[in-house]
Amino acid sequence: MKSEYQHRKEMIEIGKRVHQHGWISATDGNFSVKIGDDRILTTPTGVHKGYLEMEDFIIVDMEGKKISGTRNPSTEIDMHLTCYKQRPDISAVIHAHPTFCIAFSVAGIQLAQCLLPEVVFTLGSIPTADYAPPSTDQVSQSIEEPIKEYDAVILERHGSVTVGKDIFGAYNSLERMEHVAEITYHARALGNARPMTSDQVNELIKIRTGLGLPGKRVTCNDCNACSKFSNCGSAQKSGAMFQPQSEPEKPKASVTPGVSPELLELITREVAKELASLSATPR
Q: Measuring CA to CA, which residue among 212, 210, 248, 215 is closest to residue 229?
């Protein structure tokens, strides 16, 4: 069992890593570790988390009341307490402001769980909680349900919450979530974010089950990344489990002999661009 001193050292290390990645700035973000049934070691308010010192940390109880420390707890400590109350299996919480994750939420786009096998295998899905003003009770209320089943949740226009069995587990979920967001961003910029097939998703779920690992909830989020599943929107709203639909109908053979549908589509796009260019040219 780790000592309180070890927990403080680890949280200092995590603060440095998160800051170096650019996932917090100034006094943003907060971390915590559960060190007893009614004792939470947490970062204070008003302190840069990339430059934490051993004496900066404080200890609060499960109601958020300060037990020890010279500083004050974050106004967002209730968000951490909500995570611990909803998830008795975790011992650490990280709230950060990962750039790509926030950018997706600002754009109204949820992270697609069907694009990368890593996210399906390790995190399941990455939901986005409803918008809530920072430092209010509404933040805790917004994550109360999703944090029950997900280790990584995006806070709309605000940041993220990740949880784990220790502070490094919570950090790994944060790092993986932001990595997925960055890859998704670049894939969408290239114009071809191809979703995994339902068979591929189901295979990953079976592998995880076969290894005896805890199940991860995979829901069909209304992610705007594909139109592959007809129940996308309704499943996300109801919280239904991922239910693969039948594979999309394959495109019919090209009407032009010897020309594939893909090539025909490319030619059509190029012709459309050329026509648009001609129409914009002053006469």
A: 248
Report which of 151, 147, 148, 152 is spatially closest to residue 105, judged by C-alpha positions.
152
Residue with tokens 């947490």: 42
User: What is the CB-side half-sphere exposure of residue 77 using CA atoms within 13 A?
Assistant: 23
Of 25-29, 142-146, 210-214, minimum mean pLDDT range: 210-214
pLDDT tens-place string over residues 150-162: 999 999 999 999 9
Alpha helices for the chain (secondary structure H): 4-20, 77-86, 99-106, 117-118, 137-143, 167-190, 198-210, 232-238, 261-280
Domains of the chain, with CATH numbers?
A: 4-190 (3.40.225.10)
For the entire predicted model, the pTM comes to 0.77
* CA–CA dist 71, 73 (Å, integer): 7
Nearest alpha-carbon partner for 1 in 26, 33, 30, 23: 33
Rounded to whole angstroms, how far apart are CA atoms 169 and 89?
12
Of 10, 13, 63, 76, catalytic: 76
Q: For residue 113, how far is the Cα from the chain centroid?
A: 10
Respond yes or no: is residue 53 known to be catalytic.
no
